[in-house]
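Protein in question passed on here:
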Amino acid sequence: MKLFKKKDKNIEAEENLAKNAESAKTAADGKNAGAAQDAKEDVPETIVCPKCGKTVLKSVVKQHKYVCYECNYYFRVRAKNRIRMVSDKEAFEPWFTELTTGNPLNFPEYEEKIAKTQEKTGLSEGIVIGKTKIYGEETVLGVIDSRFMMGSMGHAVGEKIAGAVERATEEKLPVILFCCSGGARMQEGIVSLMQMAKTAAALKKHSDAGLLYISVLTDPTTGGVTASFAMLGDIILAEPGALIGFAGARVIEQTIGQKLPEGFQRAEFQLKNGFVDRIVHREKMREELGRILKLHSRK
C-alpha cells in the first residue's frame, strides 16, 4: 500500500513536470508566432506582374494608378477604386444598389455561384452605377467590375445601365461608362442577349435628347457588351493595350482561314482603324473626362 502511494506521488510529479513543459512550450510558441506576425507585417506586400513577371510592390503600383512601374502593364481595377480615381471626393451617389439578378432559366447552381461572388466581392451585381461629379461637372458614371463573373452582362447589369441612362435623360446629364466584360452572361441565355437591345434603345433616347455619352474601353471589352453599349459612345476612349473585340482572335482566324495582324483587337489597332477616338493613359483619365465634360457643358 505504501509502495502504491509512493508510485502515485511519482506519477503526479511527472504529470506536473509535463504540464509545466507544455505551458512553457505554449508560451514560447505564442511568442514566436507574435514575432513572426510582426516580421510579416514589416515585409511590404508584393504582387507579380502577369506581363513582365517581376515582383513589384503593391503600394507603389497603387500610387501609379494600378499600373506596373516596371513595364506599364495595366492591372484591372475594382469598381470602387475606379470611381475614386475619376470622381470628385465623396461625390459619388450610387443608384439601384438593391437590384440583383435572378435565375430566369433555372440554370443549375447559378444562384449559388451568384451568392458566392456577391460574398467575395461585396457587390450586388457586375456594375456599380450612379451620379457623381468630375471637376464639379455632374455626370452619371457606371463602372463594370471584372471580379463579378468577368463583368458579364446579365439582366441586372442591363437593367441598371438602361435605368441609369433613362434617369440621366430625365435629369439632362451626360453618361460615362467604363466597360470591362467577357460579354453576355451565358447562364441567362436569350435574357442576357436582350440587354443589348435594351441598353442601346436607352442610349438612343439619351442621344436624341442631345446629351453626351462617353464610353471608356478597358481590358477586356468583348462579346455582347462590345456589340451594344460599349461601341455606341459619342466619344470612345480606351486604355493602352486594352483588348477590344467581339469574338476571340482564334475563332476569327478559324472562320476566315487567315492569320491576323500583330496587335489585332488591341486598343492601338482599334485607334488606327477608326473604332476608338483616343487612347488615354490612366493617370490622365480624370483630367481628360473633366475636359470633355466642360466642353459639352449645358450651363
